[in-house]
Amino acid sequence: MLLCRGAKGDYTMEKKRNTFSGGLGFVLAAAGSAVGLGNIWRFPYLAAKHGGGIFLLVYIILVFTFGYSLMIAENAIGRRSGTSPLDAFRKLNKKWAFLGVISLLIPCIILPYYDVIGGWVLKYLLAYLTGTAQAAAGDSYFGDMLAQPWVVLAGQTIYTLFNIVILMRGVQKGVERVCTVLMPILVVLAIAISVYSITLPGAMEGVKYFLIPDFSHFSISSVLAAMGQMFYSLSLAMGIMIAYGSYLPKESSLEKNVSKIELFDTFIAVIAGLMIIPAVFAFSGGDPSALNKGPGLMFQTLPKVFASMPLSNVVGAAFFFLVLAAAITSSMSIMETIVACVCDHFGMARKKAVILVGVLAWLASFLPSLGYSVFSGVQILGFDILDFMDFITNAVLMPICSLLTCLFVSIGIGVKVIEQEVCISGEFKRRRLFEVMIKYVAPVFVSAILISSVLEAFGVIAF
Ligand code: PHE
């Protein structure tokens, strides 16, 4: 195949680029990217931390105003430029080439540590499939796993190989097909586990806490947390939506597709909340702080909750399979973004690019994964290696990238360019909302996230 071949910076081969088969393929792939660890683990724990129902309400409002506008912008930049993030900005305005570099840097930092977490998920899945739910619930199980270099390295190696194999098959046969199979399975499993969780004795308190807004819990910090979560969950500011937008056929409606992705992502976040919050409430006797364990929620608290249930191995295996499906469809999107940049910019053949990126990501993943054993003495700004990679992307680079993207749209190319691109494939009903968000609201809020998360990390303020 001639895919992606061509001289550096030569766009004459554009027509040979990969594309999704159509709107549905795009929606499933983008929803696969959006639905990830962010929905299943991060959203329920943030919701519990920030007052339950009120967080959910704020989150939903943000997704359909702010998130919507940024997602439209990124997809339109991708489709308009017909290329991946590294070159997309440069192609639309030469002066903004540097933003392409930032957009590529973010996935390059996220991919290695996401692969490490993918490896942990594999290990837990194996534990439940082999009937060791009680052992997995032990206090030291998670710590022991992290302290065994060979176990974590094996997990992340297998996980990375899955990603390589899928991407080798291309955008339609690999990315799109895997999402078409895994996303429906994920929905069915999530609904089944949440029904089970809601019917546990004592779970209704958790359902009420999560779904009924209590306005006395409203605070600016919950708005900022909801906004940060929204970025992460919708896979914004990581270059992914630019790469996927560049694969979207011109005749497919951008506006309708973006609405579907958001609806789907939010639906899964809500279902995940219903899966986890009521179960933890039932287990802890109604204490929301039991959810407030950061990463420990998924790998330490939930295994204890599962172990206390009848059919613990089945529920645990179903849950970790679901998490694996969500994680894989996200990590392959972030790897695809890097592969697309390598193909488009350097003219490398796709398969070679997949192997190159896969091997480099695998090597880079040694750092975060061995951060709990061999490199346990290494601390950067007080973070261990994996947490630092998470912090620098989520709290610093992603807000910077989205702030610059807003400025790029309003100053660098003008909102009209994006609007024209959206209009090629149908009406742009929320055009006014888009303009106000991108020009005024988003830059202010994103700057607030950036400042507050950095200050919080350095202990200047506490949320
Ligand atoms: N949207 C993803 C999630 O919710 C975020 C993500 C995508 C992270 C791709 C890494 C890679 O988990």
Q: What would you say this structure looks like, in words?
A:
This protein is mostly helical. Helix content is 75%, strand content 0%. It has 20 helices and no strands. Helix 11 (220-233) crosses helix 20 and helix 18 (385-413) packs across helix 19 (415-424). It is globular and about 55 Å long. The chain binds phenylalanine (PHE). Phenylalanine is lined by residues 33-34, 36-39, 110, 114, 232-233, 235, 330-331, 333-334.
Q: Helical residue percent?
A: over 70%
| Spatial gap, N to C terminus | 53 Å
The run of helices and strands is: HHHHHHHHHHHHHHHHHHHH
Bound small molecules, deduplicated: phenylalanine
Number of strands: 0
Rg, rounded, reads 21 Å
Portion in beta strands = under 5%
Produce a short descriptive summary.
The protein has 463 residues and is an all-alpha fold. The chain is built from 20 helices and no strands.
Output the keywords.
single chain; 463 residues; mainly alpha; 0% strand; globular; disordered N terminus; binds phenylalanine
What does the secondary structure layout of this molecule look like, with pairings?
Elements: H1 23-34, H2 37-49, H3 53-81, H4 85-92, H5 97-129, H6 133-136, H7 141-146, H8 149-168, H9 171-198, H10 204-211, H11 220-233, H12 240-246, H13 254-284, H14 296-307, H15 312-346, H16 350-364, H17 366-370, H18 385-413, H19 415-424, H20 431-457
The protein binds phenylalanine.
